[in-house]
Queue: 2 jobs
Job 1
Amino acid sequence: MCSDFVTAGALGGIRGSLRRVASDLEQQNRTVSSLAQQVQVANHWQNKAFNLQKTLAEWQAWGRKMKVGWEQEEQVSADLRQQLEETQNRLAQAQEALRVEKDRGWEELNELNEKYNKLVRDFNKLAQCANTVKAQPANAVALITALEAELNAQQA
């Protein structure tokens, strides 16, 4: 009987050891499972970080491209503003030249009108003298001499 107790005790010890081994294995399995889950989570976040870095690089490239385009647009705008200013200056100069030419044209027209009016007055005097000579043929020489003196005085 003693051997039965010894056997039972040994079996109990083996059973206890087996339970401890099974418990340790179960704990290791949980640890391995937990580690596998953590590795899976780490891989997920690593992929997420890689994708975000890729997206960031794309946005940075897009931003540089847009900045270059914006700088080119600024240069084009500056060139257009300069061209507009130059064109406005040329337009102002042309308008001033036109105004000066127009004023000069009016001055010439006024001078020509004055000459025309003087010619008309002179012609009217000649016509009056001719009419007077027709009316008074005896005084023709005196009238013509007076008319010549008056014309010579005006020309001097």
Job 2
Amino acid sequence: MNKYKLYWLLQIFGWLSFALVNLFFVSMARGITPIQIGAYISLAIFYFVSTHFFRYLIKNKSWLEFPIAKLISHVLIAVLILGVLNTISQILINWIFGTLHVPQDFSPLVIIVNLFTSFLYYSLWALLYFLFIF
């Protein structure tokens, strides 16, 4: 299998798995509703689109030709920006699906945890992507 097909297979399977694993744990805790399914699928789609855009940026801006220190700094900045965008998208998804609880979802702790979790997911994606490339 060539790298192009493998990339798409891993993107689709990886983010679909993300949604399904989250739905599994939510169902274990409190059952599952169609709204939760829609919200987690929407979040997985956001991750899919944003990581694909990240890949596009890496390829079109020739990041792979950067010295390692410059590459790491660019990746860290991009991952931080993606984490912020993801946190905003989570708030928007909650609002769209009618599950936004303003006092809870905007508490500093929830925002920090969402930023950190998003940062970890994007960092893991970047690590796997660069391992896949090299």
